[in-house]
Amino acid sequence: MASYLRNWISAVPTLSSLTSTTPAPPEIVEFAPADDDDDDAATVRGSDDESNDIPPAFPSLNSAQRAGKDTSLSSSPIPRVLTDTELMPPPPLPGLAARRPGVPSGLSIASSSLLVPPGASSLAVPPSTTKAPKKASKKVALAPGHGPLDWANLKKSGTDLRGVDSLARITAAQLKEHNKKDDAWSAFSGKVYNITHYLSYHPGGEKELMRVAGRDGTKLFALTHGWVNIDYMLDECLVGFLVPDS
């Protein structure tokens, strides 16, 4: 405890030390309001220091851009308006006068006549699609209860539409024997179908379908309605497959 008090007393500064080390009070300086003339003078005096904050000129005063002949961009902040002669020149004649719709510019008038007929526009529909079909559709009025849905229901009914016990290999001579209205067979893509029951359901009529009775009707079928899925349409009428006579 005694050692602690001695250290504390020794750390307290004495009066003499305080008087010897105390600094003198700061000198009070009074500032008078500055006049306008003094501000101008201060501005002039401080211009040298403020010049360090001004960004350098771009392009530089001694740069190659400023040394060029065309100083219109560097000397004036407003862009120069181009004259008519400096703008894009018009297409050379007779390029514009000789152009025809739908014809490339590299082709001549004589060769372009092969592409676009005289008096026709390039936006016009091609002639091949404007011609009337050679043969109009010959759909006939079917008897009541003989529509596509009726035929589908007949196939599902379990009625025997084949007329044979099993599938067979049928020659062209055998096929030719079935060419009657009550016994009509026809071959399509190598498959022979009994079309007897389908005659009254055919949208084109019985007469048109009888044209292929007793023979191969693949070509006529493709020309008339090749998009029809005949395998699905006559799957319950399949009787065999067409083979050569030999």
Brief digest:
The protein has 246 residues and is an alpha+beta fold.
Describe the structure.
The chain has 246 residues and is an alpha+beta fold. The chain starts with a helix and ends with a strand. The longest helix has 10 residues, at 2-11. The chain has a domain at 163-243: Cytochrome b5-like heme/steroid binding domain (Flavocytochrome B2, Chain A, domain 1). A hairpin with a 2-residue loop joins strand 2 and strand 3. The model is unreliable at 109-113 (pLDDT under 50). It is 33% helix and 9% strand. A 5-stranded mixed β-sheet has the order 1-5-4-3-2.
Task: Tell me, briefly, the overall form.
Answer: elongated
CATH class of the domain at 163-243: Alpha Beta
Q: Span between N and C termini?
A: 139 Å
In this structure, how is the largest beta sheet organized? Answer: 5 strands, mixed
Mean pLDDT: 73
Low-pLDDT parts are 109-113
The fourth-level CATH homologous superfamily of the domain at 163-243 is Cytochrome b5-like heme/steroid binding domain
Please state the structural category.
alpha+beta
Topology:
Blueprint: H1 2-11, H2 15-21, H3 36-45, H4 47-50, H5 64-67, H6 72-75, H7 95-98, H8 109-112, H9 127-130, H10 148-156, E1 168-171, H11 172-176, E2 179-180, E3 183-188, E4 191-194, H12 206-209, H13 218-225, H14 230-233, E5 238-243
